[in-house]
Amino acid sequence: MAPIRDKNSEFTRRKFSLCCGAACLAAPYVSANGRWIEVEHAWGTLRLNQPAERVVSIGYTTQDALLAMGVVPLAVRHWFGENPNSIWPWALKTLGQTEPVVITGEVSIEMIADLAPDLIVAIGSGIARAEYEILVQIAPVLMHASDEPVFGSPWQADTRRIGQALGKDGHAEKLVSDVEAKFLSARSRHPDWQGATAVAAWQNGSVTGAFLGQDKRAQFLTQLGFVPPEKLRDVTARQGFYATLSPEDLSPLDADLLLWTSSLGGSSDIARLPMRRTLNAHRQGREVFADTDVSAALSFGSVLSLPFALDRLEADFNAALDGRPGTIVASAASAGLTP
Amino acid sequence: MLMIGAAVALTVGVREIEPHEYMEALWHYDPFDPAHVTIVHIRLPRFLAAIVVGAALGIAGLVMQALSRNPLADPGILGVNAGAAFALVLGTALMSQADQTVLTLLAFPGAAVASIVVFALGGGLKGDAGPVRLTLAGAAVNAFLLSSVTAVVLVQQETFEVKRYWVAGSLSDAAYRPLTAMAVVIGLATMLAFAIAPSIETLSLGTDLARGLGMRPGYVQAGALTVVTLATGAAVSVAGPIAFLGLLAPHLATRVLQNSKDRSLRFRMVMAAALGAFILMVADVLGRLIMAPEEVRAGVVVALVGGPVFVWIARSLKPGATA
Question: Which residue has the higher pLDDT, B205 or A317?
Fold first, then answer.
């Protein structure tokens, strides 16, 4: 297998045209041999002669599914954060010693061509049709299904599709059912979570908001048996997945469980919010704080990050739900949010 | 007029508050009562910020227009907004965090450095900060800083969070900004402005004539630019960039005072300050109400209203007029 190059390698025009030429020459040969793997997606059909080995992941979260199935991508798309190789802690042990190339910002087609992949996974990557048409000449591209939104496809569907393209359908199915079983067992361990109200909130400067509906963080809570509070259901959702609240009225956040997420890791803006102290959720010690890693795990909502988030949050949820300020919630305490 | 503004700013909002609760909030403050928290931590700081920022921008705008003899001058052309934005975005990128207190400390120095650079480029160091040179220097520095902001945001996408809240100013962070410190700065700037107001009026007769009358144009220009820098920099630190306010308030002040006997610069400054504060208060309240419970930033409301008014002013100006 060709070595993975580091992102600083030089790239010549000759190599590119050679690659293109080779791909063009190889294409009729491959399809004439018969199709081994076929996956329908929003912009066409993915056809692979054999399971892909050299995979480039340009979706913002698709590296997790690939790593979970034991395939280290040649390149990874950087979304946010300061992690080496842009791989978050929950996926680190699957990485081993290899260092994938990190793609930042817009997708560099030359960089991808230089890596000579067999498969380009572009689910949730936001590429335009025009970029897709060029990328598909380098290697088959996997997109989301036609009935899924670009950035909101369910993690189970993503994992299964990627598993199909890798020829590891069984492995993918097992991963999905393992994670779902983990959530189910958490639910059965905590019957008091069923029907309790919970909300995932964010604070950006002086603006407070909550996640709702199909958002991954809201779904995380729903999967564990929680329901959104009454008042939050009345607040109109913007673009369907979050709502901004007036600083004068934070009562929609008053739930049995208040999960604060953070985007850049800081909790000082939340700690400093005077209106928060008037909430019953605060005075009864029902707040939980998701730090950088946990918040990122919730945002990713992938097959590897969700169990990670659940592990880190389960104990805190338990401590928060008893409604007694005396029970210290570890994450809230370290974030300075306790009453 | 200011009284009406005060009443409106303090009473109108998403939360309904009984009149007696206002007195209670001040004398028997209870941190667990949402009404008290709203009054003391949300409405009061915003009201005070509106006064301070509105007055600062009004005076800065008036001084800017008088000094540059350009009725379409806005304090932002000195690069203060761009300077503050750049300092903030760079700070976030370098420090990898977006803690509000740390960041807002960067805004004022950023604004100050930018306007010093504009002043220097505009020939101020040689004592000849002519209006044309100054405007050109301002435009150049603005372009440079704003493209630098875009460059940083493209490289480190996390900084976009900071940048997008900085595009239009708002009073909603007033409780977290160094309001008292900036109020002091603005107070100093106002005193300086009043002190040099007669000199600016003399200067508007023309640099040569002013020199003939025994004035030192260089000092007056430096003084005026200090006023504008301090006032606008402080305003930007507290509320972010508020476009058009520095442009509107002076013009409205002139129109209001058209028929009054005292048309001196000092009196117009007072009027511009009062009008600036009033407009900002109203804009903030409108922002709270238009799309409740979401808030529209005051800077956006001012721009929405200010745009058409600006067009109306520009159309009613006679060529060559200075006010």
Answer: A317
Q: Residue A100 — left, alpha, or beta (φ > 0 → left; ψ -120 to 50 → alpha)?
A: beta
Report the alpha-carbon distance of residue B142 to residue A283 in Å, rounded: 48
- For residue B126, the model assigns a pLDDT of 64
**Average pLDDT of the residues of chain A:** 84
**Structural domain boundaries, residue B279:** 2-316
Model confidence band, residue B14 (pLDDT cutoffs 50, 70, 90): low
Interface of B to A at Cβ within 8 Å reads 13-15, 31-34, 37-38, 40-43, 96-101, 154-155, 157-158, 161, 165, 172-173, 175-176, 288, 292-295
Of residues A222, A302, A286, A249, the one with CA closest to residue A61: A302
How far lies A8's CA from each of A5, A14, A111, A218, B37, in Å? 8, 18, 10, 40, 54
Q: Do B37 and A247 touch (CB under 8 A)?
A: no
HEC readout, B65-94: HHHHCCCCCCHHHHCHHHHHHHHHHHHHHH
Token pair, residue A277, equals 């102290």
Q: Does residue B239 have a pLDDT over 90?
A: no
Does A271 contact chain B (CB < 8 Å)?
no
CATH code given to domain A185-335 = 3.40.50.1980
**Number of separate domains in chain B:** 1
**pTM of the entire structure?**
0.78
Task: Give per-10-residue mean pLDDT for chain A (339 aa).
Answer: 47 52 41 63 87 90 92 90 86 84 88 92 90 92 88 89 90 94 93 92 86 88 90 74 85 90 79 87 89 90 93 90 82 81
Task: Give the CA angle between residues B285, B286, B292 to the nearest 5°.
Answer: 95
A227 DSSP assignment: B
Domain positions in chain A: 13-169, 185-335
**CATH number, domain A13-169, options 3.90.1150.10, 3.30.559.30, 1.10.8.60, 3.40.50.1980:** 3.40.50.1980
Instruction: Report whether B46 contacts B8 (CB < 8 A).
Output: no
Token pair listed for B26: 């001040």
Option in A80, A204, A248 nearest B42 (CB): A248
Across the interface, whether the CB atoms of A269 and B100 are under 8 A apart is answered: yes
User: Contact A268/B101, CB-based, under 8 Å?
Assistant: yes
Q: Which helix (H) or strand (E) element contains residue A200?
A: strand A198-204
Amino acid residing at B50: A
Shortest Cα distance from B111 to chain A (angstroms)? 20
| CB neighbour class for B312 (10 Å; exposed up to 12, middle 13-18, buried from 19) | exposed
A231, two tokens: 């008042």
Strand extents, DSSP E, chain B: none
- Please tell me which residue of chain A has the smallest CA distance to B92: A264
pLDDT tens digit sequence for A5-43? 444 444 555 555 554 554 444 433 333 344 578 888 888
Residue of A nearest to B12 (CA): A248
